[in-house]
């Protein structure tokens, strides 16, 4: 997957804020900067919380014998996150098909959430692509009807 494009203002305004975690010391490198791979955990947090906010948590999809593994990932780092930053995690669904789900993300530190920060800063923009699979054998399967309906209703218009 190519590097993610800068998010258009319309998409950003349609993104859902799903969590505001603080950067843990364990997620930083020796310089106190968020280690690049740590963002993958924050993206997962955002995705799981977004699905939970649809009214059916991801655990219900798993209980039905399905999963949504990541099939593609694209990241663009804008600025370094620092230890103890309060990050704002935003998500939008850009595509839902019977077997595919695409998420777009924006990770920010808002003015006032870091000492001396006078304006919001983007830390990261990202996209993940997922395939719906049967958990027992990893074979592609259509999303269960209830999840397809819930997720389809949350796709952002571009």
Helix fraction, binned, reads 10-25%
CATH architecture heading: Roll
CATH class: Alpha Beta
- N-to-C CA distance: 19 Å
**What's the CATH superfamily, by name?**
Hotdog Thioesterase
Mean pLDDT equals: 91
Strand content: 25-35%
What is the strand arrangement across the widest sheet?
1-4-5-6-3
Instruction: Characterize the overall form.
Output: elongated
* CATH topological fold name: Thiol Ester Dehydrase, Chain A
Whole-angstrom Rg? 16 Å
| Largest sheet geometry | 5 strands, antiparallel
Tally of helical segments: 4
Please provide a written account of the structure.
By secondary structure, the chain is of the alpha+beta class. The chain has one domain: Hotdog Thioesterase (Thiol Ester Dehydrase, Chain A, Roll). It contains four helices and seven strands, in the order αβααββββββα. A five-stranded antiparallel sheet has the order 1-4-5-6-3. Strands 2-7 form a two-stranded antiparallel ribbon. Strand 4 and strand 5 (100-109) form a beta hairpin. It is elongated, with a radius of gyration of 16 Å.
Question: What features would you highlight for this structure?
Answer:
elongated; Thiol Ester Dehydrase, Chain A; single chain; alpha+beta; 5-stranded antiparallel sheet; 4 helices; 158 residues
In short:
The chain is of the alpha+beta class. The protein has helices spanning 9-14, 38-53, 58-63, 145-152, and strands spanning 16-19, 66-67, 70-77, 87-96, 100-109, 121-131, 133-134. It has one domain (9-152): Roll (Thiol Ester Dehydrase, Chain A), CATH 3.10.129.
């Amino acid at each position: 997957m190519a590097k993610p494009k800068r998010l258009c203002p319309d998409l950003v305004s349609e993104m859902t804020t799903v969590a505001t975690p603080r950067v843990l010391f364990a997620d930083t490198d020796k310089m106190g900067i968020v280690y690049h791979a740590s963002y993958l955990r924050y993206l997962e947090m955002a995705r799981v919380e977004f699905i939970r906010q649809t009214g059916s948590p991801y655990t219900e999809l798993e209980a039905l014998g399905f999963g949504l593994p990541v099939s593609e990932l694209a990241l663009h780092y804008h600025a370094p996150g620092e230890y103890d930053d309060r990050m704002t995690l935003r998500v939008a669904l850009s595509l839902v098909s019977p077997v595919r789900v695409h998420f777009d993300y924006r990770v920010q530190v808002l003015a006032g959430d870091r000492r001396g920060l006078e304006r919001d800063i983007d830390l990261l923009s990202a996209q993940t692509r997922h395939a719906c699979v049967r958990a027992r054998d990893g074979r592609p399967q259509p999303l269960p009807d209830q999840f397809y309906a819930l997720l389809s209703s949350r796709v952002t218009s571009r």
